[in-house]
């Protein structure tokens, strides 16, 4: 009977939890309830968490310029970044990779499927910024996927605050020991977007850091128009070359309107094919290339978190003119992906796992364009 419930829960929930957190806020139901039975006990035990990572230790960074690893991946046929030292840095905050249910926050085990999922994020998400910038990606005691499934409001806040505290400390180390006054981009996905937006609200907006921030790519989260309007100096990007601003979208497939359960406020939607907020549909001809996914993101809600030996082959050539994009009612709609190379990550109409892949070359080129605009502004002062 237990095996049946486990299987039923996974089948019911896997379609909406692929790649984690952003999807969860649009979903509730029996599958979510059953899946919650697999997670941690509903208590907060600070002693159960591993010590805070020391960001002076390179092992606590998933990517550094001195050890780029999978963030050095460039799609086949795309010109590799120049060998010269970039003038801008990216601080990349990865999304949820801990699906194990062993605790409310990751144990940072380097020999685990959670770590393999982090490597997936470096290859398929963070790497899009290697054309413009040096990439810094901290490992942090991220909140488990079960935060979004079965946590009480108190546990939800504690596990999220606990994860953010690591990100905040990593950002401080980045500023003081790596960036050293250079301009930077904040780039995120899903849970990372929650933490990235908090960094902007608490550390950047209304401070001198806002002038150093080229832009922020806060993708696949739940940032609302109301939250954006509350910022003092950082704004939603209004054009492809706008700076000191942020973009945000949450991708869905045509055919069904998403239902959000957390708030009725409309989400910020910047179209990655036009880099304009809301507006009309952008045709597929503007899509510079969707990027087929390397390796497999692993979703295993029970049992051991032991590594599977997942490999990440080099990135394939981008698929140009792959899909149109339209912001509608706060969501970014793409054409149907239920067949073809992206089908494994297109669960129902929720394309959370494709927030980067479908627009990869547009993100890559736009990061270059915003950096050029920022450096031009600086030179003109």
In total, the number of strands is: 12
Could you estimate the helical fraction of the residues in percent? 25-40%
Strand residues, percent: 5-15%
- Count every helix, treating DSSP H or I runs of 4 or more residues as helices: 9
Mean pLDDT across residues: 89
What strand order characterises the main sheet?
1-3-2-4-5-7-6
Order of helices and strands: HHHEEHEHEHHEHEEEEEEEH
Poorly predicted parts: 1-30
Describe the structure.
The structure is a single chain. This protein is of the alpha/beta class. Helix 1 (2-17) crosses helix 3 and helix 5 crosses helix 6. The chain has one domain (2-380). The protein has helices at 2-17, 21-24, 30-36, 113-124, 153-179, 191-204, 209-212, 225-229, 360-380; strands at residues 61-63, 88-93, 133-138, 184-189, 213-219, 235-236, 245-247, 251-253, 270-271, 276-277, 325-328, 331-334. It is globular and about 50 Å long. The N and C termini lie far apart (69 Å). The model is unreliable at 1-30 (pLDDT under 50).
Short description:
The chain has one domain. It contains nine helices and twelve strands. Strands 1-3-2-4-5-7-6 form a seven-stranded mixed sheet, sandwiched between helices. It has a three-stranded mixed sheet with strand order 8-12-11, with no helix packed on it.
